[in-house]
Amino acid sequence: xxxxxxxxxxxxxxxxxxxxxxxxxxxxxxxxxxxxxxxxxxxxxxxxxxxxxxxxxxxxxxxxxxxxxxxxxxxxxxxxxxxxxxxxxxxxxxxxxxxxxxxxxxxxxxxxxxxxxxxxxxxxxxxxxxxxxxxxxxxxxxxxxxxxxxxxxxxxxxxxxxxxxxxxxxxxxxxxxxxxxxxxxxxxxxxxxxxxxxxxxxxxxxxxxxxxxxxxxxxxxxxxxxxxxxxxxxxxxxxxxxxxxxxxxxxxxxxxxxxx
Length: 260
Hints:
6-stranded antiparallel β-sheet; 2 domains; Rossmann fold; 4-stranded antiparallel β-sheet; alpha+beta; 14 strands; elongated; Hnrnp arginine n-methyltransferase1; 15% helix
């Protein structure tokens, strides 16, 4: 509706969920049915009322940016419907990693299993760490600078490039025990007259996406000035492409995560 109010000749909305029926009612309630056409279905399967569009707008971002693989659908729409020189909004994004030293959080999540009403259940630690947590981390507990691990130009990237392996180097800013790595993303609308961007960094205002926490089963002791060098791999799960399989290797350790 914002696009229609801004002067678009026609707006086409596509959504597979039943909420689109409420969206249709809202469009009619605001007298915009002559400008807005809503279609229920998968973008890859529906037929649009026109062969090309000038602008594609989508809030496709998932937790850790790529969770749920919604960007794949945007790239399909780009390749099949966007005119040459058309706009994608947003048009650029990047993934980043920092180290976290939050012993209280680590204790609450993992040390609990060391003594459960007098019984040791440490085997449960692995079951807990394999699932990344989505939460707002305490920025005061961040113990390194940030490292960009993935840069995506949505105007040109291919679906195959969204699975990636990237080296990273984190400069440690103070002594402490690294208890987790934290992932976040930045979003840019770089082709507008007035450039707009936002970040899901722990140092910015919190958003719906929060941050993604990759707990370490055992903390990693570091000192100020040390460089934490590692490698992160992120791939769609073969059985469930909406899920992510993530591996972080650092200082001879390997931690595997499944985001579902």
